[in-house]
Design brief:
The complex is a heterodimer of chains A (156) and B (760).
Chain A lengths: L3 E8 L2 E8 L4 H7 L18 E4 L2 E4 L12 E3 L12 H9 L8 H14 L7 H7 L11 H12 L1
Parallel strand pairs in A: 1-5
Antiparallel strand pairs in A: 1-2, 3-4, 3-5
Helix pairs in contact in A: 2-5
Chain B lengths: L11 H5 L15 E7 L5 E7 L1 H4 L4 E6 L33 E2 L5 E7 L2 H10 L1 E6 L6 H5 L12 E9 L3 H7 L2 E9 L11 E8 L2 E6 L4 H12 L6 E5 L15 H10 L5 E4 L2 H6 L6 E10 L5 E13 L7 H10 L7 E10 L13 H18 L4 H8 L19 H11 L2 H7 L7 E12 L10 E8 L5 E5 L8 H13 L6 E3 L3 E2 L14 H28 L6 E4 L2 E4 L2 E8 H10 L8 E7 L6 E12 L4 E12 L6 H20 L31 E5 L22 H13 L10 H10 L4
Parallel strand pairs in B: 1-12, 10-11, 14-15, 18-19, 26-27
Antiparallel strand pairs in B: 1-5, 2-4, 2-6, 3-5, 7-15, 8-13, 9-10, 9-12, 11-20, 13-14, 16-25, 17-18, 17-24, 21-22, 22-23, 25-26
Helix pairs in contact in B: 6-7, 10-18, 11-12, 14-15, 15-16, 17-18
The chains are: A alpha+beta (156), B alpha+beta (760).
The structure holds FE2/S2 (inorganic) cluster (FES) (2 copies).
The site of one FE2/S2 (inorganic) cluster (FES) has 12 residues of chain A, from loops.
């Protein structure tokens, strides 16, 4: 039985060569590498706190085996701030007051980032934005300011 | 002006870039992982435990059972210690038990070198149970001859009070009396960060605990009680925390991790709950039965309120009887001219332990109270907003539970504002004669709340300010930031009083009981209210010392000086800069002869409790055939005194409203009444609202200035979650003519009531 595997992948465009336990989720491996923005809220795909982008597609990294990321580029919220400058989505979350305890925030920002990239050039309605974020639970904000932030980021 | 503006939150840039560290984001070399062995039955005695198979696995360090833990029972509720023994919390916990009291109770614990091994070994611990009869609901738990869940029986306490006059006299003056009985389910907090903690020893007799807690200083004391250790030998550190809503106002994991490290030579040991464990084996919101009688005189004056609560606290007391009693006291602020009689009984049952949850018993009580207020208004043919306006508190009313006259009270203005915002009068007419399966309805409900726990508990807060070399200020406060934004609000206050820019204040957010000023923690919607005096006094003190140092430097009389926007100026002439704060700071640190580090520290007690007020207005549509409710418009209006940070204030209201809507329409932990088995202890089956379940949330404020706070503010963290249930219930009644006296008002529940009423 294979228990470990060598994989190469990039995380926020930094190349990695890893020897990973095949049972481990991408969430666990990212956290062990120091990408602690990736949060463990449930471990079974219910909450979205662990959302990252794999080749620009949002996934629950707790349900995604690390070995599946072989050869791919993984994006976490740590990589969205470049040269000390927040991304448009991060900036919009700050401006709209979309952050309280912040535990859902990295996952939500990655969902918003992928949503906006997917819909670039269009003006999604608030209902469509809500639908696009239904996989991320937030118990603090009531989602209103998050939807405001996505609208704001689209305008940026 | 720093206060009243939506400055950038102190923690927000760190949070959007993933830099904030929560408890699980720290680890230590050699950290061991612990895993509980939980009971698969709800009520039983442990006959035997065989740990040999678990211990045989490589990587398992130890297994402990009830036989290994200290025999001193301890309380877990996050209340400050009370000098009055009668007022101390019920001590009914051991670290591990041989008397299982709910499905998921903790009978043993495994410690291993990694989590997978610990989990595997936990499954191999063989426990033999002798099952006992189970009581889940109030009727079963309080029945004659019910099996005793704790020594001394199932009823924890039964108490009552009367206030505002003589009840029997008031009862005689009422000509119309309405009565109703209401039930509320078990609700879960569902903060996104699970409970997690680790502990290690940094000396032979000093313990360090890192935990996701709302109450670091209380945690220190309870761990001391549980392990029989002097409190100062325990150091509790709280990093950033991913929400708590009251569930972390209880000491849950900390005594256990502390015990484990002491048993394992001081090695770091971590206990991180899985989501499924966290939902059932931490705390819940009490399920209650609320009975309300209200009587009015001929002219529509509310004469009396007779409130009774039966509160099911589950397997362990936790906050226990304080929950209904606190809600009862705070409710008296709403209709203070009526005579109120309040009684409550709290009992054990074989369900998960209930504790504190946002608004602490008030959502349950106001569900009953504001439903009956609606009924009594209709009974006498009065518009229910008019009825509330006629009977609500006004400035100058005597508030029975605190005896104060001097607070700001804008309940009536809140109702007037809400009525206007939702176009109450015109929509009432519009919805008067409706036909067909889709029916619109309007609803309203009010609430009152407190801004702390005084006089039930001590209210103490602390603030320390240090002038740094560059003229910025480090601020340490005992108040615990848990996401609500207290660091930001308190920094605004300090900046305001000191005369520096908001940006010049750096808040040390991490709490560490070895160094942080004493404060019991984040609960009771108290923090900005009770910390304000400590911040104001510390800022005044620091300013005085800064001006004093300026005198040493320049010879100027401090009475002629002031600090404005980081510069020392001639009082009244902002253009005449005497010395820049940066220059002064450097001088205070490094001048060889004069001055010293400039600091100020204040610990202050608050002996007032400002009432806060507000209401929910809702316009909704009921699809009678589908038994569904869709909210068209929902507005919360608040009197929270002066609003310190408008954007965060709105955020608190939105979050509370979403929680209140979830409670009203979706959420319920389901427990089998026969076996005590929990059916939906995970986030897939226990439904909290997602982004598509929440309508547009509207909030409005009536700005007042409470004279008991130096900055005029009152509570706002918890109150927004109180009044959605009764407002929605009243709107469904308005739309359909059917009274739903239970929550959650799910399609299943509506079907039952609509069918009974002959609507379907
Ligand atoms: S942790 Fe991955 S969805 Fe909750
Ligand atoms: S901000 Fe706390 S869960 Fe979203």
């Amino acid at each position: 039985m294979i228990s470990r595997m060598d994989i190469s992948l990039s995380i926020n465009s930094r190349p990695y060569e890893l020897d990973v336990d095949v049972r481990k989720s991408l969430m666990d491996v990212l956290r062990e590498l120091g990408y602690t923005s990736v949060k463990h809220g449930c471990g079974v795909g219910e909450c979205g706190a662990c959302t990252v982008l794999v080749d620009d597609v949002a996934v629950d990294s707790c349900l995604y085996l690390a070995v599946w990321a072989k050869g791919r580029n993984v994006r976490t919220v740590e990589g969205e701030c470049r040269d000390g400058k927040l991304s448009a989505v991060q900036e919009a979350y700050v401006e709209e007051g979309a952050v309280q305890c912040g535990f859902c925030t990295p996952g939500l920002i990655m969902s918003s980032t992928s949503f906006i990239e997917k819909n670039s050039g269009t003006r999604p309605s608030r209902e469509e934005i809500a639908k696009g974020h239904a996989g991320n639970l937030c118990r603090c904000t009531g989602y209103q300011t998050i939807i405001n932030a996505v609208e704001n980021a689209i305008k940026k | 002006m720093a206060v009243g503006q939506s400055h950038i939150r102190k923690d927000v840039r760190a949070k959007v870039t993933g830099k904030t560290r929560y408890t699980d984001d720290f680890s230590m070399p050699g950290m061991l992982q612990a895993k509980y062995v939980r009971s698969p039955v709800a009520h039983a005695l442990v006959k035997s435990i065989d740990t040999s198979a678990a211990l045989a696995i490589s990587g398992v360090e130890a297994v402990f059972t009830h036989a290994d833990v200290p025999k001193n029972v301890y309380p877990t509720a996050g209340h400050p210690f009370s000098l009055d023994p009668d007022h101390q919390d019920v001590a009914d916990r051991l670290l591990l038990t041989d008397h299982v009291r709910f499905h998921g109770d903790e009978v043993a614990i495994v410690v291993a070198r990694d989590l997978l091994t610990a989990a595997k070994a936990a499954q191999l611990v063989k426990v033999e149970y002798e099952e006992l009869p189970v009581c889940v609901n109030s009727a079963a738990a309080m029945a004659e001859g019910a099996p005793a869940i704790h020594d001394g029986g199932n009823i924890i306490k039964s108490t009552s009070f009367e206030t505002g006059g003589t009840f029997s006299d008031a009862e005689k003056k009422a000509v119309t009396v309405v009565e109703g009985s209401f039930s509320t389910p078990i609700i879960l907090h569902c903060h996104l960060e699970n409970h997690t903690a680790y502990a290690y020893m940094d000396d032979n007799d000093h313990l360090v605990i890192v935990s996701s807690t709302q109450i670091p200083h209380i945690c220190r004391r309870i761990v001391g009680q549980a392990l029989d250790m002097p409190w100062p030998k325990i150091r509790v550190i709280k990093p950033y925390i991913g929400g708590g809503f009251g569930n972390k106002q209880d000491v849950v994991l900390e005594p256990m991790v502390a015990f484990l490290t002491t048993k394992l030579g001081g090695l770091p040991v971590k206990l991180e709950l899985e989501r499924e464990e966290g939902l059932v084996a931490t705390r819940t919101r009490h399920s209650q039965t609320v009975t309300v009688r209200a009587g009015v005189s001929r002219d529509g004056t509310l004469k009396f309120l007779d409130l009774n609560v039966i509160s099911n606290t589950g397997a362990y007391a936790s906050h226990g009887h304080s929950i209904p009693m606190a809600a009862g006291s705070k409710s008296c602020n709403l209709y203070p001219k009526a005579v109120t009689r309040f009684s409550a009984t709290t009992h054990y049952a074989n369900i998960p332990a209930a504790g504190a949850m946002r608004a602490y018993g008030s959502p349950q009580l106001f569900f009953g109270l504001e439903s009956v207020i609606e009924e009594v208004a209709r009974e006498i043919g009065m518009d229910s907003v008019d009825f509330r306006i006629k009977n609500s508190a006004r400035a100058g009313d005597i508030l029975a539970k605190t005896g104060d006259l001097k607070h700001s009270v804008a309940m009536i203005e809140c109702l007037e504002k809400g009525r206007e915002l939702i176009s109450w009068d015109s929509r009432k007419k519009q919805y008067a004669d409706q036909q067909g399966p889709l029916l619109r309805g309007l609803g309203v409900a009010s609430f009152s709340y407190g801004s702390g726990t005084y006089p039930a508990c001590v209210e103490i807060a602390g603030c320390r300010l240090v002038l740094n070399q560059d003229g910025t200020i480090h601020m340490q406060i005992g108040a615990t930031e848990i996401g609500q934004g207290s660091d930001t609000a308190l920094a605004q206050m300090a900046a305001e009083t000191l005369g520096v820019e908001y940006q010049a204040i750096h808040v040390v957010s991490e709490q560490d009981t070895d160094v942080t000023p004493f404060d019991p923690g984040a609960y009771a919607s108290r923090q900005t209210y009770v910390t304000a005096p400590a911040v104001q006094q510390a800022a005044e003190k620091l300013k005085k010392r800064i001006l004093g140092h300026c005198q040493l430097m320049t010879g100027e009389d401090p009475g002629n000086l002031d600090l404005q926007l980081g510069k020392i100026i001639q009082r009244g002439s902002p253009e005449k800069v005497v010395v820049d704060l940066t220059e002064l700071a450097l001088d205070s640190y490094y001048h060889k002869e004069r001055g010293g580090q400039i600091t100020a520290e204040v610990s202050a007690k608050t002996c007032t409790n400002a009432p806060s007020y507000g209401c929910t207005f809702v316009d909704l549509e009921v699809d009678v055939e589908m038994c569904t409710v869709s909210i068209h418009e929902i507005i919360n209006v608040h009197d929270a005194g002066k609003i310190i940070h408008p954007l965060s204030a709105e955020g608190q209201v939105h979050g509370g409203m979403a929680m209140g809507i979830g409670m009203a329409l979706f959420e319920e932990l389901l427990v089998d009444p026969e076996s005590g088995w929990i059916f939906n202890g995970n986030l897939l089956d226990y439904k909290i609202p997602t982004s598509v379940d929440i309508p547009e949330l509207k909030s409005a404020f009536v700005d007042t200035f409470d004279p008991t706070s130096p900055y005029g503010n009152k509570s706002l963290g918890e109150p927004p979650a109180i009044s959605q249930g009764p407002a929605i219930r009243n709107a469904i009644w308005d739309a359909t003519g059917v009274k739903i006296n239970e929550i959650p008002m799910t399609p299943k529940v509506l079907f039952k009531h609509f069918k009974d009423a002959g609507l379907i």
